[in-house]
Amino acid sequence: MSTRTRVFDPHTGWFRFPLAPGAAYEAQFEARMPKKGDVHTRQRRGVSVKGWEEVVVPAGRFRALRIESEGAFQRIDKSGGGRARNVIWYAPDVRRWVKLTLEVRTRGGIERSGEELVAFELQ
Questions:
Q1: String of DSSP letters for 18-41
Q2: Using CA atoms, how far apart are residues 64 and 53, in angstroms rounded to an integer?
C-alpha cells in the first residue's frame, strides 16, 4: 500500500473489518519514505475504533468511524526511533478514510501532517 509520501509493507493494519466501535487490536508494519532520503521504519501500533463522528472535508460531509493508532517505531535505515499517532476517519460510504492526521515524536521534536479527501467517484 502506498500514499504520495509513504510506502507500507505489507499494509498499516489500521482497518480490521468489520470495523465496530470498541474494537481494539495490534498492527505491525514497515514504512518507507523515499522522498525523505529513503527513511525506513518498523512500527508497532495499538489501534482502537472509538466511535462514529461527522467529518467535513473538501469532498463533503461524511459519517465516519474515528480510529486511533498509537505506538512506537524504530528506524531500520539508521539508529533512532520515536512514537507516532494517527487519527483516521473511515467513511463506509466512500470505502476509505476521508481524513487522517499524523503526529510523530522524536528527539528532534514533533512533526504533524494530515490528509483530507478532496473528491471521489465510486465505480
A1: SP-TT-EEEEEEEEEEGGGT-EEE
A2: 5
> What is the DSSP pairing of strand 96-106 with strand 39-57?
unpaired
Residues in CB range of 69: below 8 A, 6 or more apart:
12, 14, 27, 45, 46, 47, 84, 85, 86, 87, 88
Query: Which ranges constitute the DSSP H helices of 14-109?
Result: none
**Burial classification of residue 43, based on how many CB atoms lie within 10 Å of its CB (0-12 exposed, 13-18 middle, 19 or more buried):** buried
Kindly report the pTM of this predicted structure. 0.86
Query: What confidence tens digit (pLDDT) does each residue in 81-103 have?
Result: 999 999 999 999 999 999 999 99
- Bridge partners for 45 per DSSP: 27, 71
Strand pairing of 39-57 and 60-75? antiparallel
Q: How many CB atoms lie within 10 A of CB 111?
A: 12
Percentage of the chain surpassing pLDDT 90? 77
Q: Which residues of 44-57 are buried (b: 16+ CB within 10 A; e: fewer)?
A: ebebbbeeeeebeb
The Cα–Cα gap between 58 and 98 comes to 9
